TrEMBL record, chain A:
It is found in: Cell membrane. One of its GO terms (cellular component) is plasma membrane. Keywords: ATP-binding, Cell membrane, Membrane, Nucleotide-binding, Repeat, Sugar transport, Translocase, Transport. This is Fused D-ribose transporter subunits of ABC superfamily: ATP-binding components. It comes from Mesorhizobium plurifarium. It is a peripheral membrane protein.
UniProtKB/TrEMBL annotation, chain B:
CDD domains: TM_PBP1_transp_AraH_like. GO terms for molecular function: transmembrane transporter activity. PANTHER family: ABC TRANSPORTER PERMEASE PROTEIN YPHD-RELATED (PTHR32196:SF21), ABC TRANSPORTER PERMEASE PROTEIN YPHD-RELATED-RELATED (PTHR32196). Keywords: Cell inner membrane, Cell membrane, Membrane, Transmembrane, Transmembrane helix, Transport. This is D-ribose transporter subunit membrane component of ABC superfamily. It is found in: Cell membrane. It comes from Mesorhizobium plurifarium. It is a multi-pass membrane protein. The gene is rbsC. The chain crosses the membrane at residues 21-44, 50-71, 78-95, 101-123, 130-149, 169-191, 222-243, 249-270, 277-298, 304-320.
Length: 510, 327
């Protein structure tokens, strides 16, 4: 490969007036979900275009289609006026689209220079790789973006911010016309963010169209020229950033009023404190978190990606270690800090990651349901199967769990029914506090409302429900009180009546 | 859900546990083998030969019973062969110096159980992958046994009770077969009917879910390692009784026979799936092949070759059958 990357685009017959990338009527469905519905998205060379929306709005599906990770079901993609068919990440790169994902896809054992030229190493006369040229070319690329990374460094040893620069250099090596940055600042320090912004502006100055995917409003106002908002897989608006205010942007992202999807059956929450968390800190994320949850209430925790909700959920049930603070369940302190004590005191976690932390996929429904309460069906260590099956059958009937039989492997059930089985696992055990983390992740729209109704019922039966969610409608529809997290800290806690979407988002941005 | 579909599904599942998964294939293979060999060599069906086969099965089945539990928890122990030899030497040495079968037996169990405990601690505390950890233990034991004794530890006592352990009979049934049957039944009942058995499957199926449910997954794995070790202790004493000596060279490749039998029986190396009944069939298939090769007068080197082919074939048939089951 002899790419003249210092003078990209020269010599190609192109329509210089055309957009860098034009996506029209893009549609994409997954089983049970329409991820994108007739979405238009156009990028101009030299401009920075922010792509915004809540989790699940379709941002990542759209950029994965650009990157060739997903195929599209409908619509057309044009690069500089010419229709292109992107079938694979390789095609995407060939057409000049480079997506820098949040999870950086570099080979950590290789050097920086090796990663940059991964797709085609320049070779010398003998066919051996020309290492000198690779290093020199890499250095030249870093020069162009105005950021120096040692081409000989082992990639894995670099901080994320520098790995991003390697990815950007790779984009230049491939003469990318479009560079997509997917939530690039989620693990950067403020200092690194401003360096990144300098580099992004430089990319734009080189005539590259930059897509900036984020849900951080301040960053978008700082860097973007144009903003496109997606919501529920639909295109909502595309406007120059100057026409937006904080409020109009949030309005576009959240849209409709949503309260009525959640019929509330339960009465008011009691006053008895079921869970009390004081000054909780963990090594990884949480800083000095304190709150109380009362029997019969749903306490909703909101936060953007990386805010620390899952970390909090795992810490308060005793699954993850803590470095300071106390957790008290129903008046008794959670010590030693492990799940055995937690479950004994009556606190349990409904995990966000059903497959890897919840389900025993190969095992039948009944064994999945009774896992936490098996001791109650045993005499002298022998399981009374008839009693166990009857108890599971009761829950299958009560929650209308759709399964051909109790003996069906749980992996064959739908997401909603799997979730109901996992909720049964805890109810069979009998809890005082249930922590539900993203309870409707990966669940069809229809089944979602059933899960909501179940959560409502749990609180109605006197459990304290601590719900972690990134979905605003879920939060506003279900919670009695709303707590907001940002970067491991609790930034606000308010009754539902006083909460507005703006207030919540402001606290979440920190 | 109607009562009817419920019960029929239940029947299917129980039938499935007995004869489902790989067992059906394996049972068929066993039947075909027995029929084919006895047509070619009618003496296969003699009482003496059947008892000989069972006796050969006994050692493997004893250790395979523990190994099945261990593999169900998604771990494995490759040190059982090396441990088997070492245990025999130690048991014999203690027997020689104390003249007590009970103390010799106790020493053997303590040593083998200790090896299991060590493996278990390395895997659950140090979080070393069990394949690697137990290869390490295997090497330590293989070398260590020569530090203990350079040559076979001879039987100086000729205690009748010790000789009976390997060579004795109760009626027509060899003592090792009875011991193996007892251990098999205990392990079978544990896995099928007790909470412990259910937890072992659960740990193998999803360790994180087990931990979130308030159970101590590490302890369950540790227990499975220790049980496997204890089984090796019993087998090691029987082996040294049969050989009338503790042989440091015994047990080479034994771990592979045991693991092959367990895998052949349909227990998944990924954990959470498997049954002791399958393991029994697996042991029988391997030993019937061994026996067949001998009584047909074939080249004995085929004793390794044929089981290798059978393992690949049986696993492949299992994959085919699984695919056919997916609607």
């Amino acid at each position: 490969m002899s790419v003249d990357f210092l003078h990209p685009g020269e010599g190609a017959a192109i329509d210089t007036n055309a957009s860098a990338l034009e996506m029209r009527g893009i549609g994409k469905r997954f089983p049970g979900v329409v991820a994108l519905d007739n979405v238009d998205f156009t990028l101009e060379p030299g401009k920075i275009h922010a792509l915004m929306g809540e989790n699940g709005a379709g941002k990542s599906t759209l950029i994965k289609i650009m990157a060739g990770v997903y195929g599209k079901d409908a619509g057309t993609v044009r690069m500089r006026g010419r229709e292109v068919d992107i079938k694979s990440p390789r095609d995407s790169l060939k057409e000049g689209i480079k997506v820098v994902f949040q999870e950086i896809a570099l080979i950590s054992e290789f050097t920086v220079a090796e990663n940059i030229f991964l797709e085609g190493y320049p070779t010398g006369r003998t066919g051996s790789i020309d290492w000198k040229k690779i290093r020199a070319d890499s250095a030249a690329l870093f020069n162009r973006i105005g950021f120096n990374v040692d081409p000989a460094a082992r990639t894995g040893s670099l901080p994320v911010s520098q790995q991003q620069m390697v990815e950007i250099a790779r984009a230049l090596a491939h003469e990318a016309r479009v560079v997509v940055m997917d939530e690039p600042t989620s693990s950067l320090t403020p200092n690194e963010v401003s360096l990144l912004f300098t580099v992004i502006r430089r990319l734009a100055a080189l005539g590259i169209a930059v897509v900036y995917v984020s849900h951080k409003l301040d960053e978008v106002f700082e860097i973007a020229d144009t903003v496109t908002v997606l919501r529920d897989g639909r295109h909502i608006s595309t406007k120059p950033i100057g026409e937006h205010t904080n409020d109009t942007l949030i309005q576009d992202m959240i849209g409709r009023r949503i309260d009525n999807l959640f019929p509330r059956q339960r009465g008011a929450a009691g006053s008895k404190v079921a869970l009390s968390v004081e000054n909780l800190s963990t090594a990884k994320k949480l800083v000095d978190v304190s709150f109380e949850a009362r029997a019969g209430e749903v306490l909703g925790f909101f936060g953007l990606m990386g805010a620390g909700r899952t970390e909090l959920a795992k810490a308060i049930v005793g699954y993850d270690p803590i470095i300071s603070g106390t957790v008290t369940v129903d008046g008794q302190r959670l010590a030693p800090h492990d799940t055995r004590t937690g479950v004994r005191l009556g606190i349990g976690l409904l995990t966000e990651d059903r497959k890897s932390e919840g389900l025993m996929g190969e095992l039948p429904v009944y064994q999945n349901a009774s896992l936490a309460s098996l001791g109650a069906f045993a005499r002298l260590g022998f399981v009374d199967k008839a009693k166990e099956h009857q108890a599971v059958q009761d829950y299958v009937d009560r929650f209308r769990i759709k399964t051909p039989s109790l003996f069906q492997q749980i992996k064959n059930l739908s997401g909603g029914n799997q979730q109901k089985v996992l909720i049964s696992r805890w109810l069979m055990r009998g809890l005082k506090v249930i922590v539900v983390d993203e309870p409707t992740r990966g669940i069809d729209v229809g089944a979602k409302s059933e899960i909501f109704a179940l959560i409502d019922r749990l609180a109605g039966e006197g459990l304290a429900v601590v719900m972690m969610t990134s979905e605003m409608p879920e939060l506003l529809g279900l919670a009695d009180r709303i707590a907001v997290m940002c970067e491991g800290r609790l930034t606000a806690i308010m009754p539902r009546e006083e909460a507005t979407q703006e207030k919540i988002l402001n606290a979440a941005i920190g | 859900m109607s009562e009817l579909t419920h019960t029929s599904a239940q029947k299917r599942f129980i039938g499935g546990q007995l004869l489902g998964s790989s067992q059906l294939v394996l049972g068929a293979i066993l039947a075909v083998l027995c029929i084919a060999i006895s047509i070619a060599a009618p003496q296969f069906y003699s009482e003496a030969n059947i008892i000989a086969i069972l006796r050969q099965c006994a050692l493997v089945l004893i250790v395979a019973s523990g190994m099945t539990m261990l593999i169900i928890t998604a771990e494995v122990d490759l040190s059982v062969g090396a441990s088997l030899a070492f245990v025999g030497c130690i048991g014999m040495a203690v027997l020689n110096s104390t003249h007590s079968l009970a103390l010799g037996m106790l020493a053997a169990l303590a040593f083998a159980g200790g090896v299991g405990l060590f493996n278990g601690l390395v895997v659950t505390r140090l979080r070393v992958n069990s394949l690697i950890a137990t290869i390490g233990t295997m090497m330590m034991l293989q070398g260590g046994v020569y530090l203990f004794t350079r040559e076979a530890v001879q039987n100086h006592n000729q205690l009748v009770s010790f000789t009976d352990l390997g060579a004795g009979y109760v009626g027509a049934v060899p003592v090792p077969v009875i011991i193996a049957a007892l251990i098999f039944v205990v392990a079978y009942v544990t896995l099928r009917f007790t909470t412990l058995g259910r937890y072992l499957y659960a740990v193998g199926a999803n360790e994180k879910a087990v931990r979130l449910s308030g159970l101590r997954s590490e302890r369950l794995k540790l227990l499975a390692f220790i049980v496997t070790g204890l089984c090796v202790g019993v087998a090691g004493m029987i082996l040294s009784s049969l050989m009338n000596a503790g042989q440091p060279t015994a047990g080479r490749g034994f771990e592979l026979t045991v693991i092959a039998a367990v895998i052949l029986g349909g227990t998944s190396l990924l954990g959470g799936r498997g049954s002791l009944f399958g393991t029994l069939l697996g042991v029988l298939v391997l030993k019937v092949i061994d026996n067949g090769i001998i009584i047909l007068g074939w080249n004995q080197d085929l004793q390794m070759v044929v089981p290798g082919i059978v393992i690949i074939l049986a696993t492949y048939l299992d994959i085919i059958r699984n695919k056919a089951n997916v609607r």
